[in-house]
Amino acid sequence: MKIVVRVELITDWGDTNTIEVGRIDRPSETLDSESVGLSLADGKQLLHNLQQAVIPAQADEICALRRICRRCHRWTALKDYRNRKVDTAFGTVSFRSPPIVSCACEPPWYLETARRNSQRRCLIDEWSRRCANFCRWTTRSTM
Fold first, then answer.
1. Which pLDDT score, from 0 to 100, does residue 15 have?
2. Where along the chain do its domains lie?
């Protein structure tokens, strides 16, 4: 008996990709009660191969969705592809993925982060001033 395991990956926009995950050959003459079904090694190898197929496909889909600017709905440019690694229960999966780049209509991420940090700093300063005023008020009223 030959067993072929295939995975059909379908994106949210309908693109289909079929990948062969594994192939197991079990001749009928060699089957006995101990070799029926999948062995633990066969199952681990199938799951490892499944991860090798699914993770790059998911990364491609995420990158394709993130390349669309949320403000102007244009595609952002790609500079390059980098090798990424994800550790899973079935081993490390390596894949190529582009870095996510800001659109020209958005401020760079570091300016946005600096703006948020300055807003937080202002809130913390305001809170500490109020706290200090409250502490002075409570110490005056108890005297």
1. 87
2. 2-102, 107-143
